Amino acid sequence: xxxxxxxxxxxxxxxxxxxxxxxxxxxxxxxxxxxxxxxxxxxxxxxxxxxxxxxxxxxxxxxxxxxxxxxxxxxxxxxxxxxxxxxxxxxxxxxxxxxxxxxxxxxxxxxxxxxxxxxxxxxxxxxxxxxxxxxxxxxxxxxxxxxxxxxxxxxxxxxxxxxxxxxxxxxxxxxxxxxxxxxxxxxxxxxxxxxxxxxxxxxxxxxxxxxxxxxxxxxxxxxxxxxxxxxxxxxxxxxxxxxxxxxxxxxxxxxxxxxxxxxxxxxxxxxxxxxxxxxxxxxxxxxxxxxxxxxxxxxxxxxxxxxxxxxxxxxxxxxxxxxxxxxxxxxxxxxxxxxxxxx
Length: 343
Ligand code: FAQ
Prior knowledge:
Layout: H1 25-36, H2 49-68, H3 70-74, H4 83-108, H5 114-122, H6 140-157, H7 166-194, H8 198-217, H9 229-234, H10 242-260, E1 270-273, E2 285-288, H11 294-301, H12 308-321, H13 323-342
Antiparallel strand pairs: 1-2
Helix pairs in contact: 2-4, 4-7, 6-7, 6-8, 6-10
This protein binds Phenylacetyl coenzyme A (FAQ).
Phenylacetyl coenzyme A binds next to helix 2, helix 6 and helix 9.
C-alpha cells in the first residue's frame, strides 16, 4: 500500500535495466568497475540481483532494529526522573522511529514493499539487532543504552554514510547526526549518576556490567564467521569488518569508562602496545577484550533472549491496534485520487 519502490510493477515499463534476464558477466564487471571508482549506485541503475538482495536484507534489518529499539527506552518515558529527562528521552525515541521510516523508504527503493517487510518482522522471519532483546531494568540503563548502544551504532553507521548505495548512504547522514546526540545524552546521564550518591554510582556500574558484553556482540559475529562480509566489502556496502569496528568501539570506550570512574566487566581486558591509534598521540596500541560468549549471541538470534518474545508481541499488538489508521489513510488517499480524477 505504501510502497515507494522504484522497481515495483509501476516502474516496470521503463525498468529494462532491472530485468533478471539482463544479468551477464559483462554487466557484473561494469558494475564492479563503478563500485571500484566510488560511483554511487542509485535506485534506477542496473545492479546484480545479489547486491539488491543483500542490501534489502541489511537495510530492512536495520529499519526493524530502529523500530524494535524504541521499546527498551519507551519503557522508561513515563518513569524518567525529571521533566527535562522525560522530554529528552521522548525526543530520542521519536528520532528512532524516524530512522526506521527513512530506512524502510530506502529499502523500498530496492523493490520490496513495506508491508512485506513488516510481515517478515511480525512473523519472526526477519532479524533485528540482538541488542534489543535485553531488558532495561533501571534508570541507569537509559544512560548505558545511549552511551554504549548508540555509541556502537555510530561506530558501525558512520562508515555506512559512504556505502555504495546512494539512498542508504544519504539516509545514514542524518541518522548519524541524531545518533551522536543520543550518545551524548546517554553519557550525560552516566556522568550525573557517577557524580551522585554511592547508590547512583552503583546503579551506573550495574548497568555497564549488563550492557558491555551485548554491545560488543552487536557488531556481529567474528570476521571468521561472518557470512556476508567479504562480498559486502567488495561492493563497498561495508567499509570495515565486524572485528575492526568492535576494536574501534573498545578503544574509544575504555577512556570514557575511566573518566566516569567505572570498571568494564572484563577481567581479561588488556592494553597491547603497537601500531594502533592513540587519542593523545602518546601511547600507541589497542585495548583487547576478553572472550565473547558467542553462544549467548546465537541463542539471542535463535529467538531465545530474555526479551525476544515480548518485543515481537509488542510490535504485533501495535500493528493490530494501528489497523484503523492504515485503513483511514488508504480511504483518504482513495478519496483524494477520485476527487483529482473528477477535476
Ligand atoms: N543482531 O555476515 P554477517 C541502533 C546476523 S541500530 C542480529 O556479519 P552482515 C540504533 C546477520 O544479519 C542497530 N543479527 O552480517 C538504536 C547475518 O544474518 P542473515 C542495528 C546479527 O550483515 C540505538 C548473520 O548474523 N544496526 O542500534 C547481528 O555483513 C538505540 C551473519 O552476520 C544495523 O543494522 C546482530 N547484532 O553484518 C536504536 C547497522 N550481527 O542476514 C534504538 C547496519 C550479525 O544472513 C536505540 N547493519 N547478525 O540472516 C550492518 O552493519 C550489518 O548488517 C551488521 C552485520 C554489522 C549488523
